[in-house]
Design brief:
Elements: E1 2-5, E2 8-11, E3 18-22, H1 31-53, H2 64-70, H3 75-85, H4 104-122, H5 128-139, E4 143-147, H6 153-159, E5 168-170, H7 172-178, H8 187-196, E6 203-207, H9 210-218, E7 223-227, H10 233-239, E8 243-245, E9 251-253, H11 258-261, H12 274-281, E10 286-290, H13 310-319, E11 324-328, H14 333-340, E12 346-349, E13 354-356, E14 364-366, H15 372-386, E15 393-396, E16 401-404, H16 413-426, E17 430-435, E18 438-443, H17 449-459, E19 468-473, H18 479-484, E20 490-494, E21 510-512, H19 515-529
Parallel strand pairs: 2-9, 3-4, 3-6, 4-5, 6-7, 7-8, 10-11, 10-19, 11-12, 19-20, 20-21
Antiparallel strand pairs: 1-2, 12-13, 13-14, 15-16, 16-18, 17-18
Length: about 525
């Protein structure tokens, strides 16, 4: 549902599945950075041109010219628009033009240098209220995407330390690779919706630029929200914004989890909350779902090094004597079955695309079988593109392809993602998933760990309010499972002790620090189920 409520508005998952955010001016305070870079570029060029031709110098207006000709548009298109307004026509050139060449592309590349110099020196700020809204949306199970015409989107996200905040990123690099038209055409937003697996009618566009609002309206999105930071409310409404706000504190999320999040995202330890969990379990059968890598085993550099300890195997096996247990992993089904080696539990491999029951129970599900040929073609294309990058590992699974870059030099990491995106551009039936130092190419269907969890409960007749499901996982791929359990079960995030980053955005209710604490928690569950203290 999306309903008006003074003084703002409320978004609910009942009516919307995703929110697509523009970057500059909506999430990050880069509008002034871009405006300053544009002014430096154009003023230098216009002064030089006036001196050569004997004309008068009229400087670039950082407010009016920026908003009218370049804001929200692809870089080269913005240059062409502004120069045309001054009666200047330059050759287009090519994206490889040097920055001192007087072509549209050459000027664009010079502007990019100015932008990078500024970011390197000053970094970039975010709009705190926008980040808060994104947290709440994610916690409510509403997907998010960052959508930008800028080819510097990834650089800005990293400078702002929010690179992994969004489910999907579509930017100027993608537009070039996929030959997408720039705003005000809706192509870039439609691509983001497709990657998220949502229809435009079930998605919201949030934009501060006229061209971006026009793009959202042309794409027939369910709602277009204009963010007015410079006094252009009337223009945003005239361009198609259904709602215009001064900042995103005026947008609320209908989410019962919000009160828990208002504490600043600090979640209690599951071990310290055992009394509370015991009360949640009282009188209910439980079903425990476990991720494998990083949850049952420590994080390692190579997948084959993640070996389950005998103690962990014995603990999971002991738990399975008292309740239903399933391991849901990104690994192939056969791989995770062999690694865990416990017969009387359920397994879901390939992020839930491949499910099997315990020995003697004929429960099996396979999603996406018709994607196998395209996965094989994409795998070979990835190997061809990535073979020269040291440390990269392409791991083919039955229903996905994992590209591990944990051992890749930092300066080569961007080249890995570029190669992945180029292969995706050639295979639009696949989508890109993210994990800890890994990209995954998966079938582009609405299926994930959360759906696998619900499928198992449904087929066992346990999708009932008197059953308590618990899910323990450590990665972004586990958030889908945490989200489906927000109002029903218990999600527990394995945070990893000693991590230097902040607690990641999560819909989990509790945290554990490492696989050792996971084992302690499972042993506590066994004690409760046995009737102990």
């Amino acid at each position: 549902m999306f309903r008006k409520k003074k003084p703002g508005f409320i978004i609910s998952k009942s009516s919307f599945d995703a929110v697509l955010f523009d970057l500059d001016g909506v999430v990050t305070k880069t509008a002034k950075v871009h405006a300053a870079s544009w002014k430096k570029l154009f003023d230098e060029y216009l002064k030089k041109s006036a001196a050569l031709q004997g004309g008068s110098f009229k400087p670039f207006d950082s407010k009016n010219d920026y908003r009218k000709y370049v804001d929200g548009r692809p870089r080269y298109e913005g240059i062409k628009n502004f120069l045309a307004s001054r009666g200047i026509a330059l050759p287009y050139g090519t994206p490889d033009d040097p920055s001192d060449k007087e072509t549209i592309c050459g000027l664009g590349n010079r502007k990019n240098i100015f932008l990078h110099e500024y970011l390197e020196k000053n970094g970039v700020e975010t709009y705190e209220l926008s980040i808060k809204l994104i947290y709440k949306l994610k916690a409510a199970g509403i997907k998010t995407a960052i959508v930008s015409s800028s080819k510097n989107c990834a650089v800005v996200l990293k400078a702002a330390k929010i690179y992994d905040l969004f489910d999907v990123k579509v930017d100027g690099v993608d537009s070039l690779n996929l030959n997408l038209k720039g705003k005000p055409a809706p192509d870039i937003f439609l691509e983001a919706a497709q990657r998220l697996g949502v229809t435009p009618a079930r998605a919201i566009v949030v934009e501060d630029a006229i061209a971006g609002v026009q793009a959202g309206r042309q794409g027939n999105f369910g709602c277009v929200i204009g963010v007015d930071r410079i006094g252009q409310s009337a223009s945003l409404k005239a361009s198609g914004a259904e709602i215009v706000v001064g900042n995103l504190s005026q947008i609320s999320v209908d989410n019962r989890l919000n009160e828990r999040k208002e504490s600043g995202g600090i979640l209690p330890s599951a071990l310290e909350a055992m009394d509370e969990i015991r009360q949640l379990m009282a009188g209910k059968p439980i079903f425990v779902f476990l991720d494998y890598d990083g949850t049952l085993t420590p994080i390692v550099e190579r997948p084959e090094l993640a070996v389950l300890s005998d103690d962990a195997r014995e603990t999971v096996s002991a738990l399975a004597a008292y309740c239903q247990v399933a391991v849901i992993s990104g690994r192939d089904l056969q791989d995770v079955q062999n690694l865990v080696g416990i017969d009387n539990i359920f397994y879901a491999g390939s992020h839930g695309f491949d499910i099997a029951g315990p020995r003697g129970q004929h429960i099996k599900s396979q999603q996406g079988l018709d994607f196998l040929p395209v996965l094989s073609i994409a795998e070979q294309a990835l190997r061809n593109r990535l073979h020269a990058i040291a440390g990269v590992l392409v791991e083919r699974k039955k229903f996905s392809i994992a590209v591990h870059y944990r051992r890749v030099a930092e300066q080569e990491a961007e080249a890995v993602e570029t190669a992945v995106d180029q292969v995706l551009a050639d295979h639009n039936r696949l989508r890109k998933g993210h994990g800890k130092k890994v990209y995954e190419l998966q079938p582009k269907i609405d299926w994930h760990k959360g759906k696998a969890l619900l499928w198992l409960l449904e087929h066992l007749g346990l999708r009932q309010p008197d059953v308590l499901p618990l899910y323990i996982g450590d990665d972004t791929t586990d958030e889908d499972a945490f989200n489906v359990l927000i109002d029903w079960g218990v999600g527990i995030l394995v945070r990893h002790a000693g991590a230097t980053d902040n607690l990641p955005l999560t819909a989990a209710r509790y945290v554990l620090e490492d696989p050792g604490e996971v084992m302690d928690f499972l042993r506590s569950l066994i004690s409760i189920l046995k009737g102990g203290t």
